[in-house]
Each structure stands twice: as structure tokens, then as C-alpha cells.
User: Which sequence fits this backbone?
């Protein structure tokens, strides 16, 4: 059996699937591995199944000449040095498609939570402060009929946009490629126009050097004062300090975040703001999706080790080369 090093325990069904297919070495402690531990595991393995919290850099990739596959348990792969991996003939795989709906649901959960002050309302009730109905209690932002701006029209962006039709919203979107969002009332516009017209703005782009700080000081200035920004993509697509300033100065009304620029560290000022909802990067966190991501990550590794084309591979040029 081939050897698979798993950097973090996965849900049970996915772990069982690994055991059926590989000689397994897994990190069973409930914490991220140190670089030394990562190196040690990688040196033993034919393939590694890692998470977005593992930085797979050049040193790690060069540590074992027998390493054939880095199978990322995520759709985003900005944690991996793909250029070096490709040069070394190591397949880099990811898990697109299977987490689309769960992630779109989290974007909408954040949108609702910020717009309707769900988290503060819950705390209020638990603190015993609810003394009866009143017309002015927790008045939030109307959602139906408003404009949703979706930045990025990949699978997740489309799924976020599709959900808006249930709320009779006007949808604007930007996209780098020629993909359009069809079947719903959605209009492709330049980023500046989207920022200026949207009441809710959802980021659904990968993190690359082109999307670093896509939302920065100048972009906040374009937004409406009632705008709510939702980020379920990657933290550094937004300049977090400028976000804090925009929230504090009332340039925008609120933010819902599942990801952070220096994850898991969070800018302390964000923690003190009332108009934000902060989640611990749980976009794909449903039991169904997390198992399915595991099956796909394992299938990707099996294919790569057999020299076959994995279902989801970032650098297909390494197979059969
Ligand atoms: C999660 O953030 C992912 O990229 O899958
Ligand atoms: C998600 O799976 C995406 O590629 O947008």
C-alpha cells in the first residue's frame, strides 16, 4: 500500500476511506502541526493530504524526492508553492465543486446575521434583557429587493448569486473570465460600479497576487454607507486595517467575515466592533461536505500516485510528463 500522511484528522467516514486505501500516518492531536512535524511526515510519505492551514513551501516540497502528490483538503490552494511542486513533478490537487453550496450558505448566513443583528439579538435574550416587544428593538437592514454585488462568478459566486433570486434582489457581479451568470436576473459590471451600487457585497474569488487587497482604502470609499461586506474567500483579499477604519468611520455599515488576513489571528479592533460578525473559517463545515471533500482529496491522491489524471488537479501538466 502507498503511504499517505494526513496533517489533520478528518471526519470519520473520510478517515475510514483513507484507511481502506492507504498506509496511513495521521496527526491525531487536535492542533496544527509544526514545520518540523510536517517535514517528518512528508519524508515518510508518497503523498500528503493537507489543509489550508499547512504552509507547503519549497523546503517541504524538496524534503522527499519520492513525494508525488500534495492533496489539499480545500478548494483554495494559496498555501502551496505550486510553481516548485510543478517543477518537481509533484501533483497539487484541491477540492472544487463539492463545497460550493455549503460555502454559499455561509456567505448568506453572514449576510443575514449582519443585516438583522442576529448575534447581538441572541446575546441580548440570553442576558435576560428581553422585556417585551417594541417597535425599535434591533432594527436592521432590509434584504429583499436590495442589490447584491458578487465579486467573482466561479462556482461559489454563482451559488451565492442564485440564492438572491429567492429574495427578489438585483444582482451585480464581476468576473475575470468570460463566465456569465445565467438563469437569474444578474448583470455583469465593472468592479467600481458594483462597489458603488451594491447594498451587500460578497467576495467569492481565489487569493492570488492579483486579488491581494482587491478591497482596499479606495474601494471602501466607493461603497455605499449602508453597504455590508461579506468575505468567505480569503482574508488578504481585503486590507483588514482599512476595513476596520471603514467600519469605524461609518463608511460602510457592517461586515461578515469567515476569513482573516492573518488567520487565525484577528485584528483586535475587529473583535471590539458591534457591526461585524466573525466566524472561524467554517465555510465548508457541514459533515456531508467535509466527508465529501475527504473522499475527493483521497481519490485525487490515488489517481496521482497511479499516474492517472486526478479529478481535481491544479497542475495537470505533471501527469504523464
Ligand atoms: C476553504 O477555505 C477552501 O478553500 O476550501
Ligand atoms: C468553487 O468550488 C469555485 O471554484 O468557485
Assistant:
Amino acid at each position: 500500500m502507498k503511504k499517505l500522511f494526513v496533517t489533520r484528522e478528518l471526519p470519520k467516514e473520510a478517515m475510514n476511506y483513507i484507511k481502506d486505501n492507504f498506509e496511513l500516518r495521521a496527526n491525531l492531536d487536535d492542533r496544527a502541526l509544526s514545520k518540523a512535524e510536517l517535514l517528518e511526515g512528508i519524508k515518510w510519505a508518497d503523498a500528503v493530504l493537507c489543509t489550508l492551514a499547512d504552509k507547503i513551501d519549497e523546503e517541504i516540497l524538496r524534503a522527499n524526492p519520492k513525494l508525488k502528490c500534495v492533496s489539499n483538503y480545500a478548494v483554495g490552494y494559496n498555501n502551496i508553492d505550486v510553481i516548485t511542486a510543478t517543477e518537481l513533478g509533484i501533483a497539487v490537487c484541491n477540492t472544487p465543486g463539492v463545497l460550493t453550496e455549503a460555502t454559499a450558505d455561509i456567505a448568506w448566513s453572514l449576510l443575514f446575521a449582519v443585516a438583522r443583528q442576529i448575534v447581538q439579538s441572541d446575546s441580548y435574550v440570553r442576558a435576560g434583557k428581553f422585556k417585551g416587544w417594541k417597535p425599535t428593538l434591533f432594527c436592521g437592514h432590509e434584504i429583499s429587493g436590495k442589490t447584491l454585488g458578487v465579486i467573482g462568478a466561479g462556482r461559489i459566486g454563482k451559488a451565492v448569486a442564485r440564492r438572491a433570486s429567492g429574495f427578489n434582489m438585483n444582482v451585480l457581479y464581476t468576473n475575470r473570465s468570460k463566465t456569465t451568470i445565467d438563469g437569474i436576473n444578474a448583470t455583469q459590471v465593472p468592479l467600481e460600479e458594483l462597489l458603488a451600487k451594491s447594498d451587500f457585497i460578497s467576495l467569492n474569488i481565489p487569493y492570488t497576487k492579483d486579488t491581494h487587497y482587491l478591497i482596499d482604502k479606495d474601494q471602501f470609499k466607493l461603497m455605499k454607507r449602508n453597504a455590508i461586506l461579506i468575505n468567505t474567500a480569503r482574508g488578504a483579499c481585503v486590507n483588514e486595517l482599512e476595513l476596520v477604519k471603514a467600519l469605524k468611520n461609518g463608511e460602510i455599515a457592517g461586515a461578515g467575515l469567515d476569513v482573516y488576513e492573518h488567520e487565525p489571528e484577528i485584528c483586535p479592533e475587529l473583535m471590539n466592533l458591534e457591526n461585524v460578525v466573525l466566524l472561524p473559517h467554517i465555510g465548508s463545515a457541514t459533515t456531508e461536505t467535509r466527508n465529501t471533500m475527504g473522499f475527493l482529496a483521497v481519490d485525487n491522491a490515488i489517481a496521482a500516485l497511479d499516474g492517472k489524471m486526478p479529478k481535481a488537479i491544479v497542475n495537470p501538466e505533471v501527469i504523464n510528463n
User: Anything to note?
Assistant: The two ends are 23 Å apart (CA to CA). The mean pLDDT is 97.
